[in-house]
Amino acid sequence: MAGTDHASWSTSALIEAAYREQHELDDDSPCPATVALHERGSREVLDAALTLCTSLDSKRRSLGARLLGELGSPERTFPEECCDELVRLLRDPSQSVVISAIYATKVARPLFWPPGAARAPSSSASRKAAGRSS
């Protein structure tokens, strides 16, 4: 698949290629169809990723999480929808889906904590505020 121009591929064809990439290649192999979906970042890709997240197949739910974590990369698209679904996937019964969602939320961190946003205090700061030491 290396060197393939994915611009003309349908979203559904890219999804199937990304599924194969995610589950047939080793962790260090490039995943051009997955990257093409991230970069496309359209409503159609969002809807396809959200559909994957509701699949009975945990591998497809994991792929959905991976797509949502970088949708529209580098210019993120649909951040609220992506974040809402990733948070829901953190409660998935499949450990592999939860791990994919955790990784995706880490990758999507700027969507959860935009620059300048107030953040929850660290646990040590909370203990100090409550009069307890670490």
Q: How would you describe this structure to a colleague?
A:
The protein is mostly helical and 134 residues long. It has one domain (11-129): Leucine-rich Repeat Variant (Alpha Horseshoe), CATH 1.25.10. The protein is 60% helix and 0% strand. α4 (58-69) packs antiparallel against α5 and α4 (58-69) packs parallel to α6 (95-107). The termini are far apart.
Number of strands: 0
Distance between the termini: 53 Å
Largest sheet: none
Number of helices: 8
* Secondary structure: helix percent: 55-70%
Radius of gyration: 17 Å
Order of helices and strands: HHHHHHHH
CATH superfamily membership:
Leucine-rich Repeat Variant
The shape, in one word, is: globular
CATH class: Mainly Alpha
Strand content: under 5%
Q: Which structural class do the helices and strands define?
A: mainly alpha
What ranges have pLDDT less than 50 throughout 5 or more consecutive residues?
117-134
The chain-level mean pLDDT equals 82
Count of discrete domains: 1
CATH topology: Leucine-rich Repeat Variant
Second-tier CATH architecture: Alpha Horseshoe
Feature tags:
8 helices, 60% helix, 134 residues, mainly alpha, globular, Leucine-rich Repeat Variant, 0% strand
